[in-house]
Amino acid sequence: MPNDSDLAPLRAELEVLRARLDTIERILQLRDAAFPPPLQEETPAALPATYEIGADQLLPAQDGFHQLEWGPEGAFRWTGAEGELRFEAWLDRTVPLVATLRLFHLGTPANARDMTIEADGASLPLHRDGTSKVFHSDPIPPRPGAGPTILVVRVPHLHCPADQGMSDRRTLGVAFQALRLDPA
Questions:
Q1: 114-128 as b/e: b if 16+ CB within 10 A
Q2: Residue 1's pLDDT is what?
Q3: What is the DSSP code (8-state) at residue 141?
Q4: Pairing of β 84-89 and β 149-154
Q5: pLDDT tens digit string along 83-98?
């Protein structure tokens, strides 16, 4: 069992710590008296009305993308063998939205008529803008409440360049350039 002389330094240190704790508590009391918390909660910041993401931004492989590449029309990323691309968008959902998808390459021509976009579990067709590589969705219905909007672009027709004698052995979907969401 320790004697009093062994415990004396510990008791002194404990008293110093208690004094510091008392001082901190007094400082916090003074702070709360001088700057009282608001009586009502502050209004959260409004979410943006639009969302846009491009191929040159951070797009993880687990969301369906290969590495960044460059072509005559700018940055693009081929989509992977999963046949879908996933996006998480934080934006105002109190009004209907329209998704616009811009591609560098369709991969397989059938993708022009068969791609869809899923939002909140509802699948919507993507309509080609003439003969361009731009597609628009039907209106995405508004939704109450906050939280991310999860979008999944489904690419049903995949291809492998190696099947046409090229050295690229990846299974590819489309060459993604950008996705934008705007109020309808």
A1: ebbbbbeeeebebeb
A2: 66
A3: P
A4: antiparallel
A5: 999 999 999 999 999 9
Strands (E), the chain: 51-54, 65-71, 74-79, 84-89, 97-105, 116-119, 122-128, 134-137, 149-154, 175-183
Q: What is the pLDDT of residues 100-133, one digit of tens each?
A: 999 999 999 999 999 999 998 899 999 999 999 9
Q: Tell which phi-psi region holds residue 151, choosing left (phi > 0), alpha (psi between -120 and 50) or beta.
A: beta
Reading the block at residue 42, the tokens are 């502050």
d(CA 66, CA 86): 13
- CA 75 → CA 135, 176, 177, distances in Å? 18, 9, 6
Assess contact for 103 and 112: CB atoms under 8 A: no
Closest CA to 104 of 83, 81, 79, 86: 79
**Closest C-alpha to 155, from 143, 138, 169, 173:** 173
What CA dihedral angle connects 99, 153, 163 and 70, to 10 degrees? 50
Cα gap 58→77, rounded to integer Å = 11
What is the token pair recorded at 34?
């001088």
Please, how many CA atoms are within 13 Å of residue 8, restricted to the half-sphere of its CB?
A: 4
**Reduced to 3 states, what is the DSSP secondary structure of residue 55?**
coil
